[in-house]
Each structure stands twice: as structure tokens, then as C-alpha cells.
Amino acid sequence: MFPSPNHGDRRGHAPSLVVLHFTQMRDAAAARARLCDPAAQVSAHWLIAEDGTTEQLVCETRRAWHAGAGRWQGHDDINSRSIGIELANPGDRPFPAPQMTALRRLLRAIMTRWTIPPTNVIAHSDMAPGRKIDPGPRLDWEGLSRDDLALFARPDPSDPAPPLPASLDALGYPDDPARLQAFRLRHRPWATGPETDADRRTAARLLRCANTPGGSRLRDGGGAPS
Ligand SMILES: [Zn+2]
């Protein structure tokens, strides 16, 4: 038995996505209390504390209540299709190394258990643009991609820059006016202002990575890992 009562039936779906969150609370203990409070009506399958302590709050075969309204790859009801991981972080600071080590270990186990590819490890902000900003601009997606645990890409200036909407559609982003911001939050968090060729190149390269087996490692021109 796991400590959170906040879960339900998966409605016929098996987990095919992992959604990463930050808790936006003072510390892991406060987050744990809320994620296990029946009155709060929220939960996640896993909570990783700042020091890397990893606790399962909901059985992975059950539908935890972490994602809320949103879409990814044309699907709604993301809760039924996903496993949610909460990283204890108030939202205004880096993720400590022991926490990232624990995240990598947990992702590896979940992705093996449910045969989930790196392309299907997403940010809460990816599926709920404009509504959610977590896990925020400080999460090291590039580091995760180096371990084949998520998708990240740095384009070459010589890469083609096809229209952004088609790339974002194909990557899975919902049709939402805030999706450029959501895309940047994860892939180009320093970018501001109107859409640029760098956005278009990054999205196109991500798409090529997504469509290449082992492609989460494709970067810097597709050469050998540095
Ligand atoms: Zn979240």
C-alpha cells in the first residue's frame, strides 16, 4: 500500500508517458503532506526530495492526479496515460545533484518497466501551455538526454528552419497560443520575443531526434557525444 489515497482507475490505458513536475512548495515534507491529503485531490506516483530520497505515493498501475487538463500528441486525459514524478523544489532554485541522480535512476526503471521511449518523457508545461510552467527552466533536460532519458537538441546554425507550427504539432504540443513559451521554457529558456529561426531549427532538430532510434543522443550536428 502506498500512502496517497488520491488515485483512480486508469480507464483502460497503460502508462505511455512520464510527466515531470516541481512541487512549488517549501520542502519535500510539505509536498508529501499535500500529495497525500484526501482534501487536496492531487497526487503523483513518485516524490523525489532535495537529497534524492525517493518515495512512491501511488501504485503505477493506478491513475494518479498530477497532470490535470491538457493534451499531448493529440491525446487528452494525460493522467490515465502517464506516470507523474514530483521533484521537491519551490520553483526558484536549481535541482540539487543528488535529486537529479535519483531522477535518472527512477526514470531508467520506469522506462524499462513500461517500455517508455525518451520522447515520451515530458514537462508538465509541455502538455498544459499557459497553465503550467513546471518543472521550469532550471531542469537539466540536456543531461537527461545524454542518458537517453528525454529529448533535447542544440541545432547547428546551418540546420534548416522549417515552419514552427508543423514541428510543434509533430512533437506533440497542443494547439495553444502559449505553446511557443512552453516550448522555450524547456528547450530555449533564455529566449524572449517573437519566434525566430533558432526556435524553428531547434524544433526541427528535436523532431529528427524523435524520429531516429537512439535519437535522444543526436545533437551538436549529430556527431559523437562530447
Ligand atoms: Zn506540475
UniProtKB/TrEMBL annotation:
Under Enzyme Commission nomenclature, its number is 3.5.1.28
GO MF terms here are: N-acetylmuramoyl-L-alanine amidase activity
Q: Which GO terms describe its biological process?
A: cell wall organization; peptidoglycan catabolic process; peptidoglycan turnover
Q: Where is this region: Disordered?
A: 153-173
As its record notes, the protein acts as a catalyst of:
Hydrolyzes the link between N-acetylmuramoyl residues and L-amino acid residues in certain cell-wall glycopeptides
What does the record give as the organism's lineage? Bacteria, Pseudomonadati, Pseudomonadota, Alphaproteobacteria, Rhodobacterales
Organism equals: Paracoccus aestuarii
Protein name per its UniProtKB record? N-acetylmuramoyl-L-alanine amidase
| Residue span, N-acetylmuramoyl-L-alanine amidase domain | 3-136
Q: What class of enzyme is it?
A: hydrolase
Q: Which PANTHER family match?
A: N-ACETYLMURAMOYL-L-ALANINE AMIDASE AMID
Keywords assigned by UniProt?
Cell wall biogenesis/degradation, Hydrolase
Q: Which InterPro entries match?
A: Amidase/PGRP_sf (IPR036505), Amidase_domain (IPR002502), NAMLAA_amidase_2 (IPR051206)
The UniProt entry's GO CC annotations, sorted and at most eight, read: outer membrane
